[in-house]
Amino acid sequence: MRRLLRVEALLFVRDLPSAVFALIVPALILLGAGLAIPGMRETLTGGQLDGLTMIQVYTPAVLTMALATPALSTLPVMVANYREHGVLRRLSTTPARPGAVLAAQVVINLAAFVVAAALAVLLATVVFAAPLPRQTLTAAIALLAGALAMFGLGMLVAARARTGSAAAAVGMLLYFPLLFLAGMWTPGPLMPDLARQIATYTPLGATSQALAAAWFDTGFPALQVTVLIAWTALLYPLAARTFRWT
């Protein structure tokens, strides 16, 4: 496991354009949404969001989008490309186990996303005067739990996809419905009740709701965090069990 982590970390750092892109994607998404989309800097009135701008309210949802992008595109495609080009076949002749191969990918990309999320929140605070989460610890728990669950979903896709193009196609089939349930196009309070209830039990929807609670409420999102833990406990063993080297 240590050797896999070291090699994957070196490969990640050596691919400088991809590494830099991965680290600044959340910040770029926030900056683009806040400056380019009409109405995103208008102030809301009424309710618990009174006095906040749309971009400030969208900060948790944008973070979930930034999380979904590497989890459902970068990671699955990378592992599937390894399979397609015979890298995994060669690894199968070594003591490496499927769980270790998948875990190494998750650890490297999770660390990169944590740094990227911190940069995005800093940018939102400086450029758009976005408030920091009311519950910093809850936000950290929600972000970590959401990242683990989403990368687990990406690893399940990676475990089975034969080629990089197949992984990309399956990832995109999951990407857009999950983004809708995360409130990317329709903010959570404006979503139909049924859609909001369904979103609570999806990995990205639960992440978005937990982050929103950490940012704007005072209660702990116990249901959403429990859902994310359940997804994590289900997805990783399933990905390791169904993993194929060729």
What does this structure look like?
It is a single chain. The longest helix has 31 residues, at 54-84. Helix 3 packs antiparallel against helix 5, helix 3 packs antiparallel against helix 7 (164-181) and helix 3 runs antiparallel to helix 9. The protein has 246 residues and is mainly alpha-helical. The chain starts with a helix and ends with a helix. The protein has helices at 2-14, 16-36, 54-84, 87-91, 98-128, 136-160, 164-181, 193-200, 203-216, 222-242. The protein has one domain (2-242). Helices cover 76% and strands 0% of the residues. It contains 10 helices and no strands.
Compact overview of the structure:
The chain is built from 10 helices and no strands. The protein is an all-alpha fold. The chain has one domain (2-242).
Topology record:
Layout: H1 2-14, H2 16-36, H3 54-84, H4 87-91, H5 98-128, H6 136-160, H7 164-181, H8 193-200, H9 203-216, H10 222-242
Helix pairs in contact: 1-5, 2-3, 2-5, 3-5, 3-6, 3-7, 3-9, 5-6, 6-9, 6-10, 8-9, 9-10
Helical stretch tally: 10
Overall spatial form: globular
**From the alpha-carbon coordinates, what is the Rg to the nearest angstrom?**
18 Å
**Helicity, in percent?**
over 70%
Salient structural properties:
246 residues; mainly alpha; 10 helices; 76% helix; globular
